[in-house]
Please model this.
Amino acid sequence: LKKKMPPQQIQQTNQSYIIASKVIQRTEDRISTPIASLLNGLLNLDTNVIAQTQISSSEAAPPPGSIIAEVKGSGAALTASEQTTVDVWTIIYELHRISPQILTTVIGTVTASLQSPNSQMRHRVTKLLGRLFYAPTSNIAVQFHPCYREWIRRSTDIEPKIRMSMVKYLVSILSNKSGEKDLCREATTALVRMIKQDPSIDVRVRGVHDVCDLAHSQEGDDSALSLSDKSNNGPSAIISADLLLAVGTERRDAITGLAQIYHKHYITQELKQVQSGGDDCDIGIILDTLSKTCRLDEDGESSKSSKRQRSLAKIDDNDDDNSDLHDVDEKYKWISRTVFEAVCFTDVTDPDMRNRIIMIVDDVLLGSTNATQDSTGAGKKKPLTPTSRAVGLAMIVHYLQGEDGSGAKPSSSKGGSSNAFKWMCALLAQRANLQNAVHAYIDARSKLKDYDPESEKYLTADAEAMELLEHVASLTAPVPDSPLSTSSPEGELPDILRKLHNAKDKHIFRILATIATPIHSPSARARAFEELPKRTKSMGNTASVWIKSLARRCAMGNFVNVEAVEHCILLAQECFREEDCKATMTFLSCIRVVTKIYPMVGGTTDGFGNLVELFGECRSSGHSSSFKKQIEETGIVTML
Model:
């Protein structure tokens, strides 16, 4: 045991270690008491015990008369054996792996040191107990639950470094001890308090990062990090909407982590079969996915098609499966509501949070259109297909419309009533207003070429165009903080607007004109993000950053765009042909929300043509009487 121990994650191959462990295991009944006495003596700083051993018991200098003290006091160099002498903490940890029963009387002594006035001692004890409690092969936290509770109290220690270590160990307990509900509940309670109330921002941010990383890395649904809004054992309790009342970095990181969890564990999982089917996915799979995620059959009336039996992705009607489906909903669905409720942070209150929310809505909830690295490192992860994005958009809009706090279902005639739904519409409307403002400015600027630069009409038109550009600036993000002196006009908004207005590169305005319409393609958005910073670099770094931010605020993201709406129209048409009026209304309701804000999105040749065709099919007289009744009850014709 005096041999230097390798890191805990490395498999032991040292023959001396292996032999010693075998000896201890075979003679445990005879040597457990002497070993426990030795360890307790060292922990209690018994001078008689310390003087007879080379095992270190603390960070302090060894007491006079001990073997180590005599060697150091003589000025002689330490031998190789003495240099590799380990401390009592390392030996205790190794003993728990070999023969944990030896530690029965030792753990209590170790726990008593948590009250030491020496911060270094408390930190060492906190780390040791944390390693013992979260070790996958250890059951010490259960066997010594009072000691575990005493250790939990270190989450309020006066030393920030001790609280920082507690974050790491508490999250590790949630990861490794998911089957121990009591341990996880107490760990969660401590994490809630630390993330929301810890006086150190570094500790709070570390907690947000670690919890989100753990939840994002979980592959199954059996972890302790249950995302149930009604549970006290998961991130909904740890990183809830209450955290949005925190400051800056914490709430930005929290909402980002939650959105990533939502995309990985809910959207991609629920749309897995739709994604596998590609753009030509069987309509039966899509209908089953909507029925499951939007709970279209919960009112007791079957919306399944009378024309065909769904043989693909069939949902089992037994109670256990339905319960599992509802559990998944409770774990993750609420995150989309929290994301859109965070739209309440304006550019006045927190511009960085506003930028983060726009990025999350555009590129995280339904993912990016670019291939991304898989979390396992196995390779590139394919983006969602347009069909999958359309179904995902309909799922989110349907949930937000019905999420008014009472559990009521969305009304097809009145629309959504929840705050999250209203904030979502407000965010989309802000983008529409910005696009209109950018389009008006570019149109006004382009007319300047019709006048003589020296004429009064030119000066008047130029002033009007500049006013329109100032209006554009009022609708987008403020200028980022500049490292330049505040006395210099360089980097201030008037200077940036003047440089942009007087720019000679006409391609800058062509790019802006492209994304100033809601029917541009995803490739046009990507081209704007790539080209604008290069072409505006000569205006200065602050101006270039602001113009890129303008492009991000103006361009349609991956959440709502013309491609998604056109696919929603196609899917609504296919659902109607399958005589599934509820699914049809789910897509039409989503289309109505978007086209009310962006009329052009529903007015494309293909999109509007398919809507007219669907309207004609609804008015057809060739339907059965029962289907006509469904059409009338759901109000499809009125919606169209």
In short: The CA atoms of residues 193 and 304 lie 47 Å apart. The first strand starts at residue 372 and ends at 373.
